[in-house]
Fold this sequence. Notes:
By secondary structure, the protein is an alpha+beta fold.
Amino acid sequence: xxxxxxxxxxxxxxxxxxxxxxxxxxxxxxxxxxxxxxxxxxxxxxxxxxxxxxxxxxxxxxxxxxxxxxxxxxxxxxxxxxxxxxxxxxxxxxxxxxxxxxxxxxxxxxxxxxxxxxxxxxxxxxxxxxxxxxxxxxxxxxxxxxxxxxxxxxxxxxxxxxxxxxxxxxxxxxxxxxxxxxxxxxxxxxxxxxxxxxxxxxxxxxxxxxxxxxxxxxxxxxxxxxxxxxxxxxxxxxxxxxxxxxxxxxxxxxxxxxxxxxxxxxxxxxxxxxxxxxxxxxxxxxxxxxxxxxxxxxxxxxxxxxxxxxxxxxxxxxxxxxxxxxxxxxxxxxxxxxxxxxxxxxxxxxxxxxxxxxxxxxxxxxxxxxxxxxxxxxxxxxxxxxxxxxxxxxxxxxxxxxxxxxxxxxxxxxxxxxxxxxxxxxxxxxxxxxxxxxxxxxxxxxxxxxxxxxxxxxxxxxxxxxxxxxxxxxxxxxxxxxxxxxxxxxxxxxxxxxxxxxxxxxx
Length: 507
């Protein structure tokens, strides 16, 4: 039964379980009601039989004491108790049947030995006996005959005697339980038929009620099927109030779907960036390798007869090889930073330092790279420079400032002014590099930290353009120090890159 129920749908299971509970409840209530009815009818029959027994025990019905008319009076008295099927007999003191006062059309009860002592032990309490043929049941009461006075025929004083012949006989009255059983069976049959009709009606009503109640779950099933088919934008509609079970289920499912969609979008974006990264890296590595391969093939084919040609080619090979080494080192650095994004990934050698040292060195680097370029050292946003104590890896932070300075020189026209700012703002030490170049658009600023991205695509590699990894390294190194880089730029207004690192306070 349990396996069959588990094989049903949720709607079928709910309906079957509900009907089983209803059947149990109806049968239990019907059984209790029928039992109470039977008990009441049996108690009523016992009272009627007791009344007949008490009346009969007081009537002088012995043949030598009364005539036949008095015996008829006994039968009339019995009929006044509304008992249709009753059996009345007188017993002698030793328990033999002395006279049947009221016979029955059925087989009479099979009386046990009811002598005077046995009757006295029963104390007038009713008991059940089977018929002589075993076809029916009787409720029986046995009581001793009451003492009566019989006047003698010679006119002398009255003598004492008993209705039982002077020996203390008894009367037995038995009422048939047939009417009780018929009444109980008739009521049980009608109630069972009514219960069956009620179950059918409740089953039909329950089918439609469960169908309507599970309609929100079917909508959830439809949404889940659409998601399984690849439509991650599908959402479960608001099926009920938020505080209900369905409301909480819908909210939880939609939250889970949001995270799944976000994760899928992030995975797709990561895969796209990885493909773009591999394509860009392959392209960047192929260019110097192609130059080296071409020069070596030219030398092998005898295209460099003069020593000067060989020296020139070796110089170009050396530059391309150095460019390859720098690019590979930068890629390895980025890979190590991507591994954890913390100081434990490099590892960083953190020591107390002041960003003013890096700012002054960056100032000297700018003047060395472009002597004709105006360079100023100020505080953040202008004013006087100030102390900027941090806990950092000086070598890595010098790499950051070198990349920023190199980026400003490479992407602005010669003679463009550059400002180096250093100081403290709130809980951050700030180092900024601002130029007065052409600036960038908003889309370019959002992608400026992407690897192999160049805002100026027209700049040829032969003119000193890098691989597009400098700002990506800057961003990764600063984040490894627990800081961030904020770009600020617009077309025609130049570009400013602000390094914000956690400020180191003296103990």
